[in-house]
Amino acid sequence: MSSTHIFKVEMTCEGCSGAVERVLNRLKGQGVENVAISLPDQKVTVTGTLSADQLLEVIKKTGKKTLYEGVQ
Amino acid sequence: MSSTHIFKVEMTCEGCSGAVERVLNRLKGQGVENVAISLPDQKVTVTGTLSADQLLEVIKKTGKKTLYEGVQ
Question: For domain B3-71, is the CATH number 3.10.20.70?
Answer without folding.
Answer: no
